């Protein structure tokens, strides 16, 4: 039949499921850019929170569909991955705030950088997850390497103080300034502008600080994906669940950014909770193997993950409130 190709299996799921997901993501992005942010404007905390609720609702609604259509275990695996990725994204918010501060990106244009950054993330995560899924399917022992890496990363987060990234001395920033023509100031929402060459007077292309900020935001996501991609593979090896939970969690990141950037200090004690989550996710791979289980119970995995993260959030909010009162 004419549409038989829609039912061909691709990475464990029919093609129509993948096309439907990509169509949904494109519709969300088109609605965001064409309706919600048709004109450049600053996004305040209240609007940021409203948009975040919308994106989280969409992500959870998709998880509800996964639960109904694929099964309860798949639904719980998706929601666990969604929660973990959403929480890990908090670190990304901190780094993005530093990047915007360093390049003095006006709040008016921050959404533009985040929007195009999300498009890059969709492609980069697809490549990383596709490669990861292929390797895990071919070499099952890699899952144990991922698990061990997560345990090591979690332990390192617990015992080591993280230093603030030195953006001024970042190798990529120095490379771009050395190899490309870079304007000293922003030029509105433009990533590239044509200006007169100081030496010849001819019009040549320059990159703006806004474009440099975009490049660093993309690189930051690749770095954070080193933690988040192994984490989701330790939860489920189904490429569809891995990718969709990742993308839905990240889609709402730019909406949540403007609220989180204003109160990131209130989540001071979430880092230990994240470390414990990574240790738990990595450990359960080995625990399931030792107990002779095909996989760790999805309901228990979701419950423990949610409890740790919720505990970290509540403790952070309570503790920082006390600190502010003492000050």
TrEMBL record:
Superkingdom: Bacteria
Cited PANTHER family: MEMBRANE BOUND PREDICTED REDOX MODULATOR (PTHR30238), THYLAKOID MEMBRANE PROTEIN TERC, CHLOROPLASTIC (PTHR30238:SF0)
Family designation: Belongs to the TerC family.
Name of this protein: Tellurite resistance protein TerC
Primary residence: membrane
Species of the source: Phyllobacterium ifriqiyense
InterPro entries: Integral_membrane_TerC, Integral_membrane_TerC_rswitch
Pfam family, one: TerC
Compartments (UniProt record): Membrane
TM helices/strands, residue ranges: 15-36, 48-68, 88-106, 113-133, 139-159, 203-225, 240-261, 273-293, 299-318
Alphabetical UniProt keywords: Membrane, Transmembrane, Transmembrane helix
Record membrane topology: Multi-pass membrane protein
